[in-house]
Specification:
2 domains, 10 strands, Diguanylate cyclase, rod-shaped, GGDEF_dom, four-stranded antiparallel β-sheet, Rev_trsase/Diguanyl_cyclase, alpha+beta, MHYT_dom, 429 residues, Alpha-Beta Plaits, two-stranded antiparallel ribbon, 11 helices
């Protein structure tokens, strides 16, 4: 028989193959990240979408083949070809959906999927019962099997690699891969069609129950609509899961912020300071990075009316933020006190900051409350080699000095790297 094709239906078969491939890649890429029950549902959707899509593509391609007689098909064999397509697609997606899927899984999965596509194709061909029966060219038959296995391996490899790609980038990659897969599936189908050898004057069997008319464009439209609906539903589910993950992350960040940051001033709190001190001690060398801990306390905090206290401390925090150098670490240590951690405390670059600290305002623009500042310091490693010793020393020295007191002007402890009169070491005043 002379081979002729309706190229409109050939194009339609390619579109269906692309949709089927995209659905398989999409569902397969999501399986590893889903809970067990939902993964089973998605596996079923993926198997139905992929298997039905390839099956419909086959019969649309068959309808594109122009023959001198009306095509008809055996009902039971046609249904068997659909079951083969869906079943093997499901097995392949199940194998590749394993979180630890490797090269062996891809090989096994491609054997199932490629074998399923080929089985579906040739069982579907067998459904077109004819008298006398058709035969196949061995070389083209083998070529169609190789194309089916190779295309399946590529599809599953892409599916596995796309499991970690999310968002529009993942969709773009999946669609691009689906375009390639569509070419491969159609290539297998039309190679298999070219392998067919019809005897002269062959006629459809009289007991074929299915007319070829309903297996063409109508079935392609219905199948395409079903695949589209499945993708929309799954896409909505993915969006909901991403929103849920985003909300969970936000909640986690809120909990972390509550645990590590002061609710009033927004500064790191005592727990956060402890973590910072551990890291500071771990990376500091006694001879190279003698960092300082400056303890700043509002000495008259208890005298501030309760309704004004937090507002006053927020204003105080803002004043300290204004005067410390970039890179210095500021935390709220207690309701009445702040701590500044200064790297390379003896470096001359910090002298201006120490001067600004000596001149912290007693009254802020944001509140009329008078603030009575006092400060103390400790220095690593002279004052101590752990955070507890450093904090105790800084708090103790704060009892010996008050910011802005004239009688402390000019006093300097030579052992204190800060060289600030109001930040004297114990016993050095």
């Amino acid at each position: 028989m002379t081979e002729q094709y309706d190229f409109t239906l050939v194009a339609a078969s390619y579109v269906v193959a692309v949709l089927a491939s995209y659905s398989a890649l999409y569902f397969g890429a999501q399986l590893a990240s889903l809970e067990r029950i939902k993964a089973r549902v998605w596996l079923l959707l993926g198997a139905l979408s992929m298997g039905s899509g390839v099956w419909v593509m086959h019969f649309v391609g068959m309808q594109a083949y122009v023959m001198p007689m009306e095509m008809s098909y055996d009902l039971a064999i046609t249904v068997a070809s659909w079951l083969a397509a869906v079943g093997t697609s499901g097995l392949a997606l199940y194998i590749i959906g394993n979180k630890r899927a490797g090269a062996v899984h891809i090989i096994i999965g491609s054997l199932f999927m490629g074998g399923g596509i080929a089985t579906m194709h040739y069982v579907g061909m067998a459904a077109m019962q004819m008298n006398p029966g058709m035969t196949y060219d061995p070389l083209l038959f083998a070529a169609s099997l190789i194309i089916a296995l190779g295309a399946s391996a590529v599809a599953l490899l892409i599916c596995r690699s796309l499991q970690s790609v999310q968002g529009f980038k993942g969709i773009a990659f999946q669609f691009g891969a689906a375009l390639i897969m569509g070419v491969a599936i159609c290539g297998m189908h039309y190679t298999g069609m070219a392998a067919m050898i019809y005897p002269e004057n062959a006629l459809p069997a009289a007991d074929n129950l299915l007319s070829g008319d309903w297996l063409g464009t109508p079935l392609a439209l219905v199948s395409g609509a079903l695949i589209f609906v499945a993708l929309v539903v799954s896409g909505t589910d993915v969006k909901h899961r991403r929103n849920a993950a985003f909300l969970a992350q936000e909640q986690s960040e809120r909990i972390e912020r509550k645990a590590l940051y002061d609710a009033t001033t927004g500064l790191p709190n005592r727990a956060s300071l402890a973590n910072h001190m551990v890291m500071e001690l771990a990376r500091s060398e006694p001879d190279e990075n003698a960092f300082a801990v400056i303890y700043l306390e509002v000495a008259n905090y208890r005298d501030i009316p309760g309704e004004q206290a937090e507002g006053a401390m927020t204003a105080a925090a803002n004043e300290v933020i204004k005067v410390i150098d970039e890179g210095s670490y500021l935390a709220r240590y207690s309701p009445s006190a702040f701590v500044v951690v200064v790297d390379n405390a003896a470096h001359r670059q910090h002298e201006a900051m120490y001067e600004r600290l000596r001149n912290l305002p007693a009254r802020t623009e944001a509140t009329s409350v008078m603030l009575n500042w006092r400060a103390g310091q400790s220095c690593f490693p002279d004052s101590g080699r752990n955070s507890r010793m450093l904090m105790r020393k800084a708090m103790k020295t704060s009892e010996l000095a008050t910011l802005g007191k004239p009688d402390l002007a000019g006093e300097t402890d030579s052992r204190a790297p800060l060289g600030a009169a109001f930040l004297t070491e114990a016993g050095g005043a």
